[in-house]
Amino acid sequence: MEKELEAKYLEALGEGDHEAFNMLFMSYHSLVKRFLFGFIKEEDEVLDLAQEVFIKVWTHRKSAASADSFKAYLFRIARNELYNYYKLNAIHENHLERYYQQSVWIDDLMEERILAEELGLLLDIAVENMPPQRKQIFKMSRKEGLSNEEISLKLNINKRTVENHITQALADLRKVLKIVLPFFI
């Protein structure tokens, strides 16, 4: 959406204009869904979370209207909804605790650090959602620093299988980055 038109809709949104909300919804709903679908593969869950994002936009329309970047504002809400989703399902409690503990004392001057950390957390979530063997091999390679040959010996599998899993894991992470990076710009 063009910046000037977006600014006009945001101003009207702040005043409670339903039509402006509808235009912003139509412009950004698919982007929010794509972002969420990168982490949650159940379409019904993604639709519910995307709806929650826009309910929050309407509920906090004055904040949305004054945001420096509406895309970044949407991303923050979608990210928080994603975190809440995983928290409720008790899948990624450690990641959430780390994020919330650190976010209490980090101020605006640390925004770049926050974004880098959030990106790391999102990538960790993507790794956790990989098939079990791919996740194990990727962690052994990248977290433990083992060579492909060491991994193949430890797991008693072919070295080429290890290489294939690492290649696929990196491809999976690149897909996540393609979805997430527009929100950081």
Protein model, in words:
81% of the residues lie in helices and 0% in strands. The chain has 185 residues and is mainly α. The chain folds into 2 domains: 1-91, Orthogonal Bundle (Rna Polymerase Sigma Factor, Chain: A), CATH 1.10.1740; 111-185, Arc Repressor Mutant, subunit A (Orthogonal Bundle). α3 crosses α5. It is elongated.
In short:
With 185 residues, this protein is mainly alpha-helical. Helix content is 81%, strand content 0%. The longest helix is centred in the C-terminal third of the chain and has 26 residues, at 159-184.
The profile of the biggest β sheet is: none
Q: Tell me the number of strands.
A: 0
As for the number of domains, it is: 2
Q: CATH homologous superfamily of the largest domain - what is it? A: RNA polymerase sigma factor, region 2, helix turn helix motif
Pfam family, one: Sigma70_r4_2
Family: Belongs to the sigma-70 factor family. ECF subfamily.
Keywords: DNA-binding, Sigma factor, Transcription, Transcription regulation
Protein name: RNA polymerase sigma factor
